[in-house]
Write a structure and sequence with these properties.
The chain is of the alpha+beta class. Helix content is 21%, strand content 29%. The structure holds manganese (II) ion (MN). Manganese (II) ion binds next to loops.
């Protein structure tokens, strides 16, 4: 925090009008003077908020990997020794799914092994660097239920080659989720059932209390690597028994205290 304001003061003192020209920041001075605006509009991504006409604007989507012991084991990790690791999905991977509806979710290109991962998602309305665990939950505005959809064959193939497995995780529509429930209404989630069924058959079935790293610990850890900002959301990891889906399958995700998340693969 102190570092940010110091940098800003220094920049302003040196005559760079950061605040006055946000759309052209980074362009040479002569280009800034001549620029009237963007050549086209890019949609702003947001998530509905339960009980509000306002929406939650999304800045970044962070995801934690292997955060339930049994899932870490099924993915080939030792859950007792490995620190948490994070990856990102692009912000526009968000697919908003209204409670009580079953959204069509397109089967993506390139994969022959498309997997579900049901997860609790935390949405931040405050940011910070090096946030202590004891204060981390102050950053959380609310929670929802989400699917971290995964092209598992591509993820595994890239991992085998020691290449980034972004193509397995970061693609269009890869982040279906429900509306955000403010903490003020539902509190924080530290325990409770988390399940996913496919065509009425239970696939994933665990409890939030089995997370290796709690949401507060995830925020504290993440904030050592990145400056967290309002609008960041965090997928908190999936329990064991991830598995494939095919077109026609209906997925129903459940977390105690939240409405179900329902999608049909098309
Ligand atoms: Mn995941």
């Amino acid at each position: 925090m102190a570092h940010t304001s110091t940098s800003r003061r220094a920049a302003l003192a040196s005559g760079i009008a950061l605040a006055a020209a946000p759309l052209t920041a980074g362009l040479p001075r002569e280009a800034q003077a001549a620029t009237s605006g963007p050549i086209f509009d890019v949609p702003r991504i947001s998530i509905p908020i339960v009980g509000s006409t306002q929406v939650f604007p999304v800045r970044r989507i962070y995801c934690i990997g292997r955060n339930y012991a049994a899932h870490a084991i099924e993915r080939g990790s030792d859950p007792t020794r490995e620190p948490p690791f994070f990856f990102q999905k692009p912000t526009d991977a968000v697919q908003n799914v209204a409670p009580g509806t079953t959204a069509d979710h397109p089967y993506p290109s390139l994969t022959k092994n498309y997997h579900h991962e049901i997860e609790l998602v935390a949405a931040l309305h405050k940011g910070g660097r090096n946030v202590p665990v004891e204060r981390a939950l102050d950053l959380v505005y609310g929670y929802t239920i989400g699917l971290d959809m995964t092209r598992r064959d591509l993820q595994n193939a890239m991992g085998d080659q020691h290449k980034p497995w972004e193509i397995g995780k970061s693609f269009d529509h890869a982040a279906p989720l429900g509306p955000i429930h403010p903490v003020a209404q539902i509190g924080h989630f530290t325990k409770g059932a988390i399940t996913l069924s496919v065509n009425g058959k239970l696939r994933q079935n665990s409890d939030l209390s089995k997370m290796i790293w709690s949401v507060a610990e995830q925020i504290a850890q993440l904030s050592t690597a990145f400056e967290l900002m309002p609008g960041d959301i965090i997928y908190s990891g999936t329990p064991e028994n991830v598995g494939p889906v095919v077109p026609g399958d209906v997925l129903v995700g459940h977390i105690d205290g939240l409405p179900e998340l329902m999608v049909r693969i098309v």
